[in-house]
Structures are given as C-alpha cells and as structure tokens.
Write a structure and sequence with these properties.
Layout lengths: L6 E5 L4 H12 L5 E5 L4 H11 L6 E4 L2 E4 L1 H9 L3 H5 L5
Parallel strand pairs: 1-2
Antiparallel strand pairs: 1-3, 3-4
Helix pairs in contact: 1-3
Length: about 90
C-alpha cells in the first residue's frame, strides 16, 4: 500500500479560499497539512512566487505535484482525481 503524500499549502491568516481548501482536504481524510504562512514570512512568500509563479493563496502541493489554488483543488475533486492522489496512487 502506498503512503499518503505530504500536503503543503501556502496560506495567510485571513483567506476564505485557504479555509475552503483546508475543509475539503480534511473532508477527504487529510490529517496533516503543512501550512506555510506567507503573511508572517516574506522569504516564504518569495519562495511561493518562485515555485508557482502565482501571488495568490492558497497554493497547494500534494507530494511533488503542484495542484494550484482552491478552484484547482475543487476541480480535481470533482473530476474524481483527488482521492487517488491523496492515497499516493500513481497517475
């Protein structure tokens, strides 16, 4: 059985899309989300922009795979591809 890949989410304190993304991930069984607060750490904000070429939050990674923002996560879930990804199944 594959182990669940780590979930990393760049976020800020006051972000309804971050909350929504976290709620969906938790509903799909994710117990640990590494939240990187870019509002508290300018270096991490620069890292996020460099990694994703985006300035908005959330920016989500599941394992090594870049998911995108909240809308991208919701679309992945609607397509039925989120749960296999969270389970560590290969594409």
């Amino acid at each position: 059985m594959n182990s669940a890949p780590p979930v990393v989410m760049y976020s800020t304190a006051v972000c309804p899309f971050c909350v929504r993304a976290e709620q969906l991930l938790r509903a799909r069984g994710v117990t640990t989300i590494e939240k990187i607060r870019i509002d508290l750490d300018p270096d991490r904000r620069a890292e996020m922009i460099e990694r994703t070429a985006k300035r908005t939050v959330p920016q989500i990674y599941i394992g090594d795979r870049y998911i995108g923002g909240c809308d991208d996560l919701l679309a992945l879930d609607r397509s039925g591809k989120l749960l296999p990804l969270l389970a560590g199944e290969p594409d």
